[in-house]
TrEMBL record:
Entry's family note: Belongs to the HypD family.
A GO molecular-function descriptor: 4 iron, 4 sulfur cluster binding
Domain of life: Bacteria
UniProt cross-references to Gene3D superfamilies, sorted A to Z: 6.10.20.100, HypD, alpha/beta domain 2 (3.40.50.11740)
The keyword Chaperone appears for this protein: no
Keywords: Iron, Metal-binding
Entry-linked NCBIfam families: hypD
This protein's name: Hydrogenase maturation protein HypD
Pfam families: HypD
Signal peptide as annotated in the record: none
InterPro entries documented for this protein: Hyd_form_HypD, HypD_1, HypD_2_sf
Coiled coil location: none
GO BP term (any one): protein maturation
Amino acid sequence: MKYLDEYRDYDSVQRIAQEIRRITTRPWSIMEVCGGQTYTIVKSGLQELLPSLVTLVHGPGCPVCVTPVAMIDRAVATALLPQVILCSFGDMLRVPGSTQSLLDAKALGADVRIVYSPLDALQLARSNPTREVVFFAVGFETTAPANAMAVWQAGREKLSNFSMLVSHVLVPPAMEAVLASPQCQVQAFLAAGHACMVTGYEEYFSISQRYGVPIVVTGFEPLDLLEGVLMLVAQLEAGRADVENQYTRAVQREGNLQAQARVAEVFEVTHRVWRGIGEIPSSGLRLRDRYRDLDAELRFGLKLEDAAESAECIAGLVLQGLRRPYDCPAFGIRCTPDTPLGAPMVSSEGACAAYYHFGRRKNDVDSLVSLTAASY
């Protein structure tokens, strides 16, 4: 495909991987903060192309995976209310709550529908004036502008039967939470290009300076990611900690100012609980007071107890980059995409699902890394 195949070119990938091997002299640990990037890394076997001194660590970059159990429970309880149509992106339906998923609620008769945009939910509200239409808004900065536009449009049209259950999270505070942890072993970050398309990357400069870590804004194709790794290793080897942009074809330093303005008009920053991690200050978005009548939590007054993860699931450690999916004793046995114990086994961007689908078991990965290292 034009403009896509060039970022998957085999010869270019091999050339950049060889350059990374050439300049690497010390162990480095690099975290990608995007589930889409994790998927490409695992599917393409990029870790096996790198020298054994460079380790790619998967971070909390899957918004489906970090949506807390209590929020899933609220979505399920809302969907089970009479006259409610609950709309969501497809991945959210199978994410386990404390006792049920949205798919379970649908099987019990709840009207749960998959949509591809919050504007689809708006249209449902227009077409069903006697029903309450609730959109489950999950995502990072990438999806915030479309959700903000849906809220703004609903307010403009005075759609009284539309509301939003908001569970938005933000990337930079998650990166800081990882770096502030006493267990942190991350020395550099591949930043998520699609989030930076909206926000730009000005905010990353203070993080880089405060913690002394290089950050490279990176795309999602194999060539993008390897170029990002090369840029990071070059900084690390030189003792630098700067912010650089590999994804120049899509990201500008200031980001999309119109999208930022719409998000700021509709949402405000709030503390947010991350599944498997806990509360991260100022890491989420909620509706501003002028739009609180469109807040589904307030509209339906749902008061639910916070719920805990499965005691067997180590998703929190996986999301913080402290464990690999195959370190979990339930991985691929009691936890599979059909019977998930945690959200990272559900989402297409979840590390556990990626490892499962592409055959990344501990012995296989160790053998591939050793074989690749021995070949160079």
